[in-house]
Amino acid sequence: MITLLIRIVSLAALLYLVLPLVVIVGSSLTNTSFLAFPPQGLTLTWFGKVITDASYVSSFVTSTVLAAFATAVAILFAVPSALAIARYNFPGKRALSAILMSPLILPHVVLGAALLQYGTAIGLTRNFLALLVGHIVIITPFVLRAVLPQLTEEQKSLEEASADLGGRPVTTFFLVTFPQIRSGILSGAIFAFISSWINVELSIFNTTAELTTIPVKLFNYVQYTIDPTIAAVSAVTILVAALVIIILDFTLGLDVLSERR
Amino acid sequence: MSTTARRVSLLVGLPSLFFLAFFLAPMTVVALASLTDASGNLTFVNYARILLDQYHWDVLWVTFRIGAITTIACVLIGYPLAWYLVRIVDWRPWRRVCVILLIVPLFTSNIVRSFGWMVLLGRNGLVNDSLQTLGLIERPIRFIGIELGIVIGLVYILLPFIVLAVGNSVADVDPSLEQASADLGARPATTFWTVTFPLCLPGLMAGAVMVFMLAVSAYVTPALLSGGRITVFSMLIFQQYSSVFDFNYGGALSITMLVLTLVLVATAGRVGATKGA
């Protein structure tokens, strides 16, 4: 009886989770010039309009390049920091890890506002670098959080063995440590990349008419008009997300919620 | 300098400097601005303007009420869903599909997801059409512009977080403990409430705190689903920084929001810790 109730709630919840995405993809295929769901007729016209519109293409490119750079820097910051935090005792260690992790719980609007105000003072606003700096701050914790638990004590003894055998720290890192934390870096990097790619709250303070990311462009558009073109842009982002996740499931395995026995 | 000190500074030097320059310094600038007036004199006038004004309290009340309702709804829907995925689904391919359905929204921007609800909840949207066809309502309900609309959108966006947090803690429960409870004669409901649920409580609390934080600080979803009729606190901050450019008052708003959320979350964490112990 209770199991039945749980099943009903769960299936309803899953329906609730897919419904908006299905509606957007569906209404992007409509033949009408206004949004209609279920779609009336099927057409790819709106997708054609998006890929031939230079402003959409350039925001897609900006978002992707921004996320790629930010993720690369986040890895370069987070992996060494994780190593230092897991392997050494030094003054200020707790403070350092608290600071590196705190962007996870800080409201992005507050951080975005802070960076805008600070950027105005030091002359770093409304350009690619200003966007990049903010994105690095918010996504570094994702990589750090994924890598830290993988730097276990057992692994530390492997590293010590390598050092005893004469391996220099750099050699030890690449031959012993790195293979063990590769999956953590990868999963952290994926979350970091996505978080940057979909961010609005931070980016919105530093975008301009010419330099804008795809979520910010969508946000500015959706507030005033909704039409099938905007549904098509959204549908592209949904399909890309779904594709990435299915690939991840088949390569890394996303079976995160099975019972561990 | 010892080897350790040299290595540590080599490893954390750059990230520390970066976070000092682009995280701590900006936050300090905001905090200082909130305590000064336009000409740079130390003052509490910005905070007085917020704390002595009924309007700000009303906005805060709306913001935190939406946050609390969202969190409760997420727990009530998320707990059964997590339980279903971990304990009830026994056909692995279906669970894979479910997990994909759970994570795809996480990989899609808040804009796109809120936009989906704008379409669904509109005057002639699917929700109103279905309710009318079923004869449950006579005239379309205006969802956009009432708190319910914002809550529907926020719960939708935050549900995966709580499902993942609870799901992981349910998956970590050692089945032999439940077995032992059953062997000692406890009925399934007793076992659940005295063994399983307390073991999942830390995961549930962590998920709920995260949902609450994200719900009260959300900007995009309320902005799109409020239809300009409801104001939440993050909108006040955004206004100051995007159009009014009053950084002193804006800074005080930012700090107020930050402090209030952190205090509430710390309190929730403390209550959770004592209950869980």
SSE order and pairing:
The complex is a heterodimer of chains A (261) and B (277).
Chain A: H1 2-27, H2 45-51, H3 54-87, H4 93-101, H5 108-122, H6 128-147, H7 153-164, H8 169-197, H9 214-222, H10 228-251
Chain B: H1 3-34, H2 45-51, H3 54-88, H4 92-103, H5 110-121, H6 126-133, H7 147-172, H8 175-183, H9 188-217, H10 220-225, H11 233-244, H12 247-276
What is shown here, in short?
The complex is a heterodimer of chains A (261) and B (277). Chain A is an all-alpha fold and 261 residues long.
- Major sheet of chain B: none
Helix content class of chain A? over 70%
How many runs of DSSP E, i.e. beta strands of chain B? Answer: 0
- Return Rg of chain B in Å: 23 Å
CATH architecture assignment name of chain B: Orthogonal Bundle
Structural class of chain A: mainly alpha
What is the third-level CATH name, the topology of chain B?
MetI-like fold
Order of helices and strands of chain A: HHHHHHHHHH
Largest interface: A-B, 89 and 90 residues
Number of strands of chain A: 0
Q: Compute the average pLDDT of chain B.
A: 87
Instruction: Assign an overall shape of chain B.
Output: globular
Coarse shape of chain A:
globular
Name the poorly predicted regions of chain B.
none
Mean pLDDT of chain A: 87
| Total tally of structural domains of chain A | 2
Structural class of chain B: mainly alpha
